Description:
Helices cover 39% and strands 23% of the residues. By secondary structure, the chain is of the alpha/beta class. It has helices at residues 3-7, 56-63, 85-94, 110-120, 126-139, 155-167, 185-200, 212-218, 236-241, 246-256, and strands at 18-27, 30-40, 45-49, 71-76, 79-80, 95-98, 173-177, 205-208, 221-226, 229-234. The strands form 2 sheets. It has a 6-stranded mixed β-sheet with strand order 6-7-8-3-9-10, sandwiched between helices. A 4-stranded antiparallel β-sheet has the order 2-1-4-5, covered by helices on one side. It is built from 10 helices and 10 strands. The protein has a single domain, classed as P-loop containing nucleotide triphosphate hydrolases (Rossmann fold, 3-Layer(aba) Sandwich). The site of magnesium ion (MG) has 4 residues, from helix 2.
Amino acid sequence: xxxxxxxxxxxxxxxxxxxxxxxxxxxxxxxxxxxxxxxxxxxxxxxxxxxxxxxxxxxxxxxxxxxxxxxxxxxxxxxxxxxxxxxxxxxxxxxxxxxxxxxxxxxxxxxxxxxxxxxxxxxxxxxxxxxxxxxxxxxxxxxxxxxxxxxxxxxxxxxxxxxxxxxxxxxxxxxxxxxxxxxxxxxxxxxxxxxxxxxxxxxxxxxxxxxxxxxxxxxxxxxxxxxxxxxxxxxxxxxxxxxxxxxxxxxxxxxxxx
Length: 258
Ligand SMILES: Nc1ncnc2c1ncn2[C@@H]1O[C@H](COP(=O)(O)OP(=O)(O)O)[C@@H](O)[C@H]1O
Ligand SMILES: [Mg+2]
């Protein structure tokens, strides 16, 4: 890490719930995040879109510190992300994550998947954790599956459990990394509906997705990434109807053909 980057200018104080300032990240020679500046307000829904390999997943992973960054700062509620220990465990609870591949614990029941974090990290009592988990499973429409194991559920159901699991921690923000791209088409909608609902209830969300319907009905802002950079940002309608950058135009041209 070089001093030169941090000493050249004063980093402006950002008011966002999540704020990335001058964030750079390399994997060896590959510069995957290039001077990213992004501030996400409380209650805001930001859709991140862009070609494969543009750094979208790395961006999400950096926000809950699954990936350390090289330079720049990331803050949650004005506080720099902790790097270890209890503070890191708390950060992971405060910043929920929903992955493409569901990532449920295969040998735990649906109910146990949702109560585990609250019991271990939030130190909730067993009764309270179960009651809350059942409410959340109800909310995402899978309460009747509570005693089953993940493999007994459809992909759409599993993903809704993953959302309930994230919600059970009372997160300040939830990051969704292509939450519907591993799903059969008929299950995409049921997951998106749960996400639209969350957005309506003012959950702060960062959503990597190419689902334009979701972006149009739920996003406050679309952020377009290419080659590790934020190339363009706009409200969904503006972005999808009149993107200004050549790269966004090319990209939309490709995904709209499908
Ligand atoms: N752990 C890693 N080690 C090395 N290269 C990686 C790693 N993770 C991602 N990359 C590379 O970083 C770039 C950005 O990846 P990623 O953030 O996953 O992009 P996206 O989610 O937009 O497809 C890609 O070129 C990818 O191959
Ligand atoms: Mg990705």
